[in-house]
Amino acid sequence: MIVLSWGYMAIAQDATPTATPTEPGIVQEATPTASPSPEGTTAQDGTAVPSPVLTPVPVPATPADPAAASAAVPAAGPTTAELKVALDTLWVVIAAFLVFFMNAGFCMLETGFCREKNAVNVLAKNLIVFGLSTLAFWAIGFSLMFADGNDFIGGLGGMFLNGQDNSPATGDAYKGIFSALNWTGVPLEAKFLFQLVFAGTAATIVSGAVAERIKFLDFLIFSILLVGIAYPITGHWIWGGGWLAKMGFFDFAGSTVVHSVGGWAALMGAAFLGPRIGRYQSGGTVALPGHNMSIATLGCLILWLGWFGFNPGSTMAADGKAIAHIALTTNMAGAVGGIAATITAWLYLGKPDLSMIINGILAGLVGITASCAYVNMGSALIIGLIAGVIVVFAVTFFDNLKIDDPVGATSVHLVCGTWGTLAVGLFSVGPGGYPWMVDLAGKPIGPHGLFMGGGFTTLWPQIVGILSVGGMTVLVSSLFWIALKATLGIRVTPEEEIVGLDIGEHGMEAYSGFVKEAGPSNLGGKSGGISNNPGGITTNY
To answer: Pick from 301, 342, 364, 506: most CB atoms within 10 A?
Structure first.
C-alpha cells in the first residue's frame, strides 16, 4: 500500500496542472480518461483493453477556514523593546535577590562578633527587620522617597504602591507619579523590590551597633520609623529628585543614601543606649570578644557576594559593559580594603586581627559604593586603600569617645560611607567619561572629580550632602530614640544583660546543650585582652 501510494503521488506530480487553483493540503479524487472497463477484458474486435490510467483533476479551492488560517500563521515574536524590558527586569530582580541575601551576611557577621549569650537576639533582630522593612516601605516609605512631591519630601499618592504609573515607559513617555524613576525601563514592581532591599539594609546596620543591650521591642519600633520616615526623606533629596540631586550631588549606589544614614542612626542609638557592662573600666577599653569568628567570616563573604548585586544592580538595566566595570571597581576596593586593614592592624595593634580584616573588606566595599560607576580601576584601588586604613583608626576613635559598637558598624558604614561620598568629588571621570554616563537623550552627564580636572564642581555638592544628610538623620533618629527611651525604655536590665538577651528577651539559647564558657568576659567583667576591637584577641577567648 505504501508503494502504491508513492506511485500515485509521483503520477499526480507529473501531471500538467490547470490554471484552476487547488486548496492546499487536500488531495482530490482522480477521474479516468477513458470509460472504465474491467481490467483484463477484450474489445469486440478481440484486442485487449488496457487498464484505465487515472489523472488528477484539479478542483477549485474553497475558501479556507479563518480560524485555521490564523492558527497556521506563526505568532509574531516579542519586539526588541519588549526583549530589552524583559532582560532589564531580569537583571534588576536578580540583583535584588543578591542584596536580599546580604541579610544572611549581616546575621552571620553580627552574631559572630557578639557573645554567645546574645546570639539568638542578634539573629532574631536581623531576621525580623526585613519583614518590618517590607511593610513600612510598602505602606509609606517608597511614596515619601519617590512619589512626586517637592524638593524636600515625596508625596503620599504612592502609598501602598498605588498611584498612576505606566512603567516601563521612560523619559517623556512616562506618565505617572514616580517620575524620579522614569530613567529605568522596568516595571514599577521591579523598581520597588530593588529599592526595598536597600531600605532594609539601612535598618540592619543599626542592629549591630546597638547589639547586646537594647530591648527587642524598641529595636523593632525604631526600624519601622527609620525605614518608613527617616530613610525616605533624605533618600528623596538624592534619588527622589530632591534639592541635593538638583544641586549636583551624586551617589550611585548608596554610600550616603544607605550606609551613612544607617551609620548615623546606629551612632545615635549606641550613644543613647550607653556602653555594655564592663566595656570601659579604669579609663581603658576592655575587649568583649565575639564568640564565633568562623560565622563572622562567612558573613563577610556573603556580604561581599551581595555587593555584586548592590552596586552593579544599581544600573537597573542589563548594560553589560557598565555591569562588568562596576563589578570590577567594587571588587578592587573590597580586596584592597581588606589588605590595607590587615597591614594597618598589624602595625597599629600588633596583630593581623581577623575582625579588622573583615571590617576592612566591608569598608572598601562601602567606600566604593557611591563612585563605582564613575571611577577607573586605579581610583577604585585608592578608595579601597584609604577606607581600609581609616576603618581601623575609626574603631579606636569611637572607643575613645566611649561609643560602644560591638560590630564596628559606625566605623564601616558611617565613616567609610562619608569617605566614599567625598571620593565621588575627587576621582570621578566626568560627564560622558564612560558610555553609560549619558541621559536618555544621549547627553553626557555625571560627576567630575577634583583630581580629574573637574575642580570643585562636584566636590562642593558632595560636602553639602554629607553634612545635610548627616544632620537630618541625627535629628530625626535622636527624636525617635528619645521618645522610645521616655516611653518604653530602650535598655534591658543589668541582670538581663549579664545573663544574656537570649534568655531575658527570648527565653531560649542558641547553643542549648553545649558547654558554656566560664570567664569574666562572658559576664562583662575585665579581661586580659590586648585588643579593643569587636572580635579582639583576649586570654579568655
So the answer is: 364
